[in-house]
Design brief:
- The protein is mainly alpha-helical.
- It has a domain of about 220 residues: TAP42-like family (Serine Threonine Protein Phosphatase 5, Tetratricopeptide repeat, Alpha Horseshoe).
- The protein has 12 helices and no strands.
- α6 runs parallel beside α8.
- The protein is elongated, with a radius of gyration of 43 Å.
- It comes from Mortierella isabellina (Filamentous fungus).
- This is TAP42-like protein.
- InterPro entries: TAP42/TAP46-like_sf (IPR038511), TAP46-like (IPR007304).
């Protein structure tokens, strides 16, 4: 590696970055991690050479940088992304190293006015996260969606320029300016890495909060008196679990079991902030059972039709009475047709 030029170091590192981007291996796979380490070695060496040779000067404008040197702007962006994919070692150190490379890449882009004003405002929020106001969830989500859309568009443009550059190798394409295509390709790659860097910086800040909190928990556990000192409060650890139903305080005023402090104000608050309708106090089944116990529910019958007693064939009087009843009913229906009493004032 000592004998490789800056261009060779960059090309090897960029190739490994692209291979890992398209790899189907998991990030914890040993082969994947070996490639990550190899890419970091190439790009780390390239970053040192860029700094030593002073390729990028703050006094130069973007147009003064040729396409061959402009691509070296991507070194720290690739480095930050690869370092972030490391799984071994102290996670806090890994996150801080990746953040340093990404911020250095974004600073160089800012110096040469490659980054847009909107992305610059987001970057300043990451650089000064303690004093910067936090965005609400809706605004943060909209920014993520917009960055994702721009990232997809830029990635598509990169692929189109790469295909156009491959076609320009044909001698028949005499009217194609290869240098302009290469410069547009590099600028598109830089814009793509700016969006990825903003995404990585946001995830780094979120993960750092969790990592620092885990370290504090481990420190509290290490300085605790027993293994459960990190999960129990000092008050709870001094309490006797067998005193669940005993007195709250000892004679000296020491708490003997957990308790909740409340007052009349809280009771009034609970009475005010409640639904404006009466809430049920029992289920339907409980209500029916209660009514049944009180004797308000009649069981049986209801659905069964009363059966008409059969008339004995030898009881002539009953048979005659039934026949006369049927005839009277027929006469009544003839004298009173259906709907006769509901003529709607038609006379």
């Amino acid at each position: 590696m000592e004998n490789l030029s800056l261009a060779e170091l960059f090309n090897n590192g960029q190739r490994i970055y692209q291979d890992l981007k398209e790899s189907k291996l998991g990030s914890a796979d040993p082969s994947y991690q070996r490639q990550v380490e190899e890419g970091i070695l190439y790009l780390g060496r390239a970053s040192d050479l860029v700094q030593r040779l002073g390729i990028f000067s703050e006094n130069e404008i973007l147009d003064d940088i040729n396409a061959n040197d402009l691509r070296f702007l991507l070194v720290n962006a690739y480095l930050g992304s690869l370092v972030l994919q490391q799984t071994g070692g102290n996670r806090k150190d890994i996150l801080e190293r990746a953040k340093t490379y990404l911020l250095e890449f974004m600073h160089t882009c800012d110096v040469h006015q490659i980054i847009s004003q909107e992305d610059l405002r987001i970057l300043k929020r990451f650089q000064d996260s303690d004093s910067a106001p936090r965005l609400d969830a809706a605004t943060s989500r909209e920014q993520k969606i917009e960055r994702y859309r721009r990232e997809k568009e830029t990635d598509l443009k990169v692929k189109e320029l790469q295909n156009l550059l491959e076609k320009s190798g044909d001698k028949a394409e005499t009217n194609v300016d290869v240098e302009d295509i290469e410069r547009d390709l590099i600028m598109s790659l830089i814009q793509y890495q700016i969006l990825k860097a903003l995404e990585h910086l946001q995830s780094i800040d979120q993960e750092l909060v969790m990592v620092l909190e885990m370290e504090k928990m481990r420190e509290r556990a290490a300085h605790g008196d027993d293994a459960t000192s990190d999960t129990r409060s000092p008050l709870t650890s001094r309490m006797d679990p067998r005193n669940a139903n005993g007195p709250l305080l000892s004679k000296t005023g020491k708490p003997l079991r957990p308790f909740i402090i409340t007052n009349k104000r809280q009771e009034l608050r609970d009475q005010v902030f409640r639904p404006g309708w009466a809430l049920p106090t029992m289920t339907i089944d409980e209500y029916l059972q209660q009514e049944e116990e009180r004797g308000n529910i009649i069981k049986g019958g209801g659905n069964e039709q009363a059966q008409k007693p059969e008339i004995d064939d030898n009881d002539y009087e009953a048979l005659d009475a039934e026949t006369m009843k049927a005839r009277d009913w027929d006469v009544y229906k003839e004298d009173n047709p259906r709907g006769w009493g509901n003529r709607g004032n038609k006379g």
